[in-house]
Write a structure and sequence with these properties.
By secondary structure, the chain is α+β, with helices and mostly antiparallel strands. It is built from 13 helices and 20 strands. It is elongated and about 80 Å long.
């Protein structure tokens, strides 16, 4: 689950990470009022930042034609005008796709005097099964670009999960980022706070880009987490009701929300052949083989290792709400799962929905003969696939 920038900053602040004074609003009038208060306190520049679950906001374009989802303003009136142009409009960035995201909230904050932009993230390194802290002196850029152009500028520090991040590791990273003097201690403290936020929140990613060296009004250099991205492991949300309460359903696809109600892993894609599969690895392989035979998958849908008849029926209903779907491929390997339970669910779902689209089913594994018999005796037009390749070819041909 992703959360907004302002919510990520709230969590980071709880663990001692320095962030700019930030307020959130959902009207242009409220934005102007916040800006007036900040200017009265001495702020010279005010940042107006669209809140959507996507990066690249500053370079994005609103469908109204207004350019940029992040703006710097010098007057409260300018803040008002920029807020009015953003709120209630759809922002398109590299990460949103052409459909974009509706902006319903803004961050209004005093923009600090930035001297240097850095990059910092904590994530799970699946190859080593350990947390890894990534940092770079090239802040403000996509880390993928840095990796492609100047990979030597990416600092990686593996963390022993039994010990957590040690102070010497934090100081080591701070030094590698070129921090000197008082900034070494500040950087170490901030790094430890970011890691603790990641660990205790069961996050999959905490990214601060940019992490900035800023100069205060008194002329002192300090570190601030100017931006923040936060993703939480869905499987751990039951342990964090405070984070679960931050979920913004308006940022999620309606069909994905519906699927989550039945504990189904569903992601909508752009193709025409829907997939219903048990197991993420098999689901990925199923999408690949559809592509291999010349078509495109309409979704990723993993019903899990022990799906019930009700979950199968729900999966069919969700699939059929996608108008791009022209055919369905069910690919089940019964390890834990009973193939006959799946077959019974398929028959019930087809009858309930009045399915008219081509349906190809490949069953293999536990109680497969009973499952095949249930399908054969159903009286429904269901195409049987003998193997993954056979099933994929049949559904591609049926749709074509």
């Amino acid at each position: 689950m992703n959360i907004h920038e302002y919510q990520a900053k709230q969590l980071l602040a709880q663990y001692g990470v320095a962030i700019p004074a930030t307020e959130v609003c959902d009207t242009a009038d409220a934005a102007r009022k916040i800006a007036e208060q900040l200017i009265a306190k001495g702020a010279e520049l005010i940042a107006v930042k669209s809140q959507i679950h996507a990066g690249g906001r500053g370079k994005g374009t609103f469908k109204s034609g207004f350019q940029g989802g992040v703006k710097l303003c010098r007057t409260a009136e300018d803040v008002y005008e920029k807020a009015k142009a953003m709120l209630g409009n759809v922002l398109v960035t590299k990460q949103t796709g052409p459909e974009g995201r509706l902006v319903s909230k803004l961050i209004i904050a005093a923009a600090p005097e930035i001297e240097k932009e850095l990059y910092l993230a904590v994530l799970l390194d699946r190859s080593s099964s350990r947390p890894v802290v990534m940092a770079s002196t090239e802040g403000g850029m996509d880390i993928e670009e840095v990796a492609a152009r100047t990979p030597e500028k990416i600092i990686k520090e593996s963390i022993d999960p039994a010990l957590g991040m040690m102070p010497y590791q934090a100081r080591k990273i701070a030094a590698a980022l070129g921090l000197k003097g008082d900034l070494i201690g500040q950087g170490a403290k901030l790094l430890l706070g970011v890691y603790k936020t990641w660990w205790e929140s069961d996050a999959s990613l905490v990214e601060i880009n940019p992490l900035c060296i800023v100069r205060t009004r008194e002329g002192k250099e300090t570190l601030l987490a100017v931006d923040a991205k936060f993703s939480v492991d869905d499987n751990a949300l039951y342990r964090h009701p405070n984070i679960q309460a931050m979920r913004d359903l308006a940022e999620e696809a309606p069909l994905e929300i519906e699927a989550s109600k039945f504990s189904l892993n569903y992601i909508k894609l752009d193709g025409s052949i829907a997939c219903l599969v048990n197991g993420a690895g098999l689901a990925m392989a199923t999408m690949d083989i559809i592509q291999h035979f010349g078509a495109s998958p309409a979704n990723f849908l993993d019903v899990g290792g022990g799906a019930s008849q009700d979950q199968v029926a729900a999966a069919f209903k969700i699939i059929l709400q996608d108008p791009n779907v022209k055919g369905i491929l069910v690919n089940i390997f019964g390890g834990i799962m009973d193939c006959n339970v799946i077959a019974t669910g398929i028959v019930a779902a087809v009858k309930e929905t009045g399915l008219k689209l081509p349906l190809v089913v490949r069953l293999e594994g536990n109680n497969v003969e009973a499952g095949r018999k249930t399908l054969a005796e159903s009286g429904l037009t269901i195409i049987s696939g003998g193997s993954m390749a056979d099933a994929a070819q049949k559904v591609v041909k049926a749709v074509a």
